[in-house]
Amino acid sequence: MIDLDQLSLDEIKELITLAGSIRKNPWAYRESCRGKIMATLFYEPSTRTKMSFQTAMYRLGGEVIGFDNPDNTSVSKGESLKDTITVVSGYADLVVMRNPLEGAPAAASLYSKCPIINAGDGGHLHPTQTLTDLVTLYNEKGRLDHLKIGFCGDLKYGRTVHSLIRTMTRFPGSSFVLISTPELALPKYVLDVMDAAGCSYTITDRLEEALPELDVLYMTRIQQERFSSREEYERQKGIFVLDSEKLQLAKPELKILHPLPRVEEISVEVDSDPRASYFDQTVYGVYARMALILTILKSQSRPEKRKIPRSTHPHRCSNPKCITQTEAYLPRVFREAGDMLLCAYCDSGTLI
Ligand code: CP
User: Fold this and answer.
1) 178 with 223, same domain?
2) CA distance 164 to 86
3) Nearest residue (CA) to ligand 1, atom 3
């Protein structure tokens, strides 16, 4: 599970339905993963994703191993991703991985003896947050079609935004308002997905103007850790802040989502507004991940040893944050799109 694009819309809907059944009757599932082990390999900090995965596995009756600081593992002695994953996938039935390098879970899946779940790879994708967001929207809005969703803040580095937009373009009638500064605008490869799906979208830097028309507002944090300098971050922070005054402009049935952590982009006073759904969203995340773990472990006998693809081009990916920059043994695999080569790990485009 590297990207939700691997699933059909029906499979995504089945996961949402299963999450709903688990939420209604969690006790019925408490032995479902007895005897199974999940490894959580977090090369980057996390509160919600790591702990909701762990909670999900414990509530399904399984066990958890793993690390949340690679400095305390043999990664600090120079062990490659390939070797770490080869070893850990021999211990566990399922690996959940977060890594600051884009495409790392896709790279790990080449060498893993068990299924890999992408728990966030740099500024690229975060599919299980998207599953969480879908479960939240389905329960809080009652539908996933014909929603106008405003995305506000760091649309450049916000992997949760990239993943959710890509998936929402598959639901009928989705439309988007992209609210950011020009410096933190959505990457081209996500705009291309919206264009290809024929979704309507507008781009603005005025939250107040966008608010009245929205069914959902998806706020995001400015991702300080992804900026190349502190000065660049300082120029972007604090530009978009949702407060009670601005919320007066919004529909009464608006739902406000945020993947969290929040820094200062939503005032604390908004927390008590009935439209604020971001803390409920963290609870839906446990049911979403229980449904995903259960489905993967139920459907998957241990995969056959994978055939490692051969390099398709001599080029190296030009994205400095791509996993291929540090793990030199990885085959250089691209797909062609017009005059661009798209990296199979991080989706970045390189001009041919
Ligand atoms: N939403 C999310 O990914 O939060 P964490 O970074 O705390 O896991």
Assistant:
1) yes
2) 30
3) 49
Tell me which residue range forms the domain holding 330.
Answer: 313-352
CATH code: domain of residue 52 = 3.40.50.1370
DSSP string, 216-252: EEEE----GGG-S-HHHHHHHTTS--B-HHHHTTS-T
Same domain, 52 and 173: no
pLDDT-derived band at 305 (thresholds 50, 70, 90) equals: low
49 lines ligand 1 (CB under 6 A): yes
Report the alpha-carbon angle 128-134-139, nearest 5: 130
Could you tell me if 163 and 181 lie in one domain? yes
Residue type for 192, please? D
Best mutation site among 40, 46, 135 for ligand 1 pocket (most ligand atoms within 8 Å of CB): 46
Question: Is 242 in the same domain as 262?
Answer: yes
Ligand 1 pocket, 40 CB below 6 A?
no
Q: Which atom of ligand 1 sits closest to the CA of residue 132?
A: 1
Q: Strand ranges (DSSP E) for 235-352?
A: 255-257, 334-337, 340-343, 349-351
Q: What mean pLDDT is reported for the chain?
A: 95
Confidence of residue 337 (pLDDT cuts 50, 70, 90): confident
Nearest CA to ligand 1 atom 6: 46
Same domain, 325 and 232: no
Total of domains in the chain: 3
Local confidence band at 303 (pLDDT 50, 70, 90 cut-offs): low
- For the CA of 51, the closest atom of ligand 1 is 8
